[in-house]
Design goal:
Length: 223
């Protein structure tokens, strides 16, 4: 009976924790956007103006933000809109410091949302920071220009994320021949990193499995 209660309690934690954290992040994000967008709405156009004082519409700011972004995208599709956006782009590009931040963010967003981008679609292993130690890395780009000539013709850019926060990490350049391809999706690799390696997929290459302790590759089954 004690073992059943313990297993039931642990199962409840496993189910409730990701659900609770996800709901918390959603509520926090919606509340943040509402607090930013709602004050910008004129009172006459704000539906909450005509409602009781203690009644609010959760998600109204998110809805308005989505509509505004959609309208901005539609405006950019015609000549007049492209002219205005181009003018604003040139103004921002001419302001010191601002142009550095704006240019970097613009390039990142264009790369992420471009259909031509192949970033973070391949997972590899590389020996880092020393021989015999393997880390999971994402292929972010093919080497171009002087990097390609100085390092190797098949040089690639790797993003090595940190654990348990995969949004930070290191940028490495290396010939593709130094990497080991892993038949693993980006989502599976992210789970591996976030879980401190406890969620280990069964797709590691044989040469890597051979170098790892058996307890990691084939962990003992427990009740």
């Amino acid at each position: 009976m004690f073992r059943w209660l313990r297993n039931s309690f642990l199962t409840g934690i496993v189910i409730a924790t990701p659900l609770g954290v996800t709901l918390y992040l959603i509520v926090t994000f919606v509340g943040f956007v509402d607090n930013v967008v709602k004050p910008l709405i004129p009172a006459r156009y704000n539906p909450e103006t005509y409602l009781p004082a203690d009644f609010t519409i959760p998600g109204l700011g998110v809805l308005i933000a989505v509509l505004l972004l959609t309208a901005l995208g539609a405006l950019a599709a015609n000549i007049f809109g492209r002219t205005l956006i181009g003018l604003g782009d040139r103004i921002l590009q001419g302001v010191p410091l601002v142009r550095n931040v704006y240019g970097a963010l613009k390039q990142i967003m264009e790369t992420v949302f471009s259909g031509k981008a192949n970033s973070f679609k391949e997972v590899v292993l590389i020996e880092y920071p020393m021989k015999g130690l393997y880390v999971v890395a994402f292929v972010s780009a093919e080497g171009q220009g002087d990097l390609k000539h100085k390092i190797s013709e098949d040089v690639i850019a790797l993003f090595v994320p940190t654990t348990p926060n995969p949004t930070s990490g290191f940028l490495l350049y290396t010939p593709r021949s130094n990497t080991i391809h892993v038949d693993m999706s980006v989502e599976e690799a992210a789970k591996l990193i976030i879980s401190f390696g406890m969620v280990t997929p069964d797709k590691l290459p044989d040469e890597v499995k051979a170098s790892l302790p058996r307890a990691i590759v084939d962990p003992p089954k427990t009740d």
